[in-house]
Input
Amino acid sequence: MQGLLGNSEFNTCKGLIKLGWIIIKMNSAKLTAVAALVLFSAVAQAAPGIDLVANETPINTPKSPEAVAKIPANFKFVEPGTLTVALAVLGSALPFGLYARDNKTIIGSEADIARLVADGLGLKLKVVPAAWEDWPLGVTSGKYDAAIYNITVTKDRKTKFDFATYRQDTLGFYVKTGSKIKSITSAPDIAGKKIIVSSGTNQEAVLLAWDKENQAKGLAPLQPIYVTDDAAATLAIQSGRADATFGPNVTGAYKSLLTGKTTLVGTVAGGWPKTANIAVTLKKGNGLVDAVQASLNSAIASGSYLKVLDRWGESVEKIDHSEINPPGLGD
Output
């Protein structure tokens, strides 16, 4: 069953569901379908802030004449009249992509964004589950029209791809609900605290830089805590062995809404000290990025964009307008 979900998703589900001992010998494909439905149903019922059943209903947006007009003449989509988009399902952290109760329909925040883009362009939508390693070659080779995969704009990636932004890339500090800690937004706030962070990540670099700054001022040193999985992090926070977690805000926000056991107390730009953005990713120079940007801006103006972010707990990362190839990590 754990193969159906990433470690963090499975461990979250374990905290919500008492399945007891299950000894089943049956066809693995049937077991996969049954287990997926059991987990989906249980999580959907348990989530106080996110209704996965309600989120199966698509959010649409009107076709944008401006966006349609910007589609290059004679542009060849992978399938005529259809926008084919690579995205993550289950293997990435929720809420980016997961299967609905029928175990075949893909829902999630990235699928919703893909639908808004396709709607604005007056196209049908085809979403294709893809591995992270697959989307770069898939986009450049023409296997996919676009990738919507929580992809951050970077200096290196802009040499091969065009980007139309749809969300900020932010990192979030989360504490146990009811904690006396109310705000962590700058270096002095982490002094003397025990904070869970993943090794080798940008968020670790932020914490270590802040800690160095603090110690130069005589403040108490940070105590970084490194754990091997989400279950260990959850236990450390809930037991009081750690004061906070620090990681990608969108996954932290989802878990907070899902369980109600953690609370956001501060965010930091994902590209700290610079800003960073998440973007629809397209083959460089094929001309489609202008149309995609116009479609996203139309969805923002119509309000459908914010509805999508709200229902997946991502509104803290909303943007006012889409940008093409903005400064990214490394610029």
Q: What stands out?
A: The radius of gyration is 21 Å. The chain has three domains: 2-46, 55-165+278-317, 170-269. DSSP finds ten helices and twelve strands in the chain. Residues 1-47 have pLDDT under 50 and may be disordered.
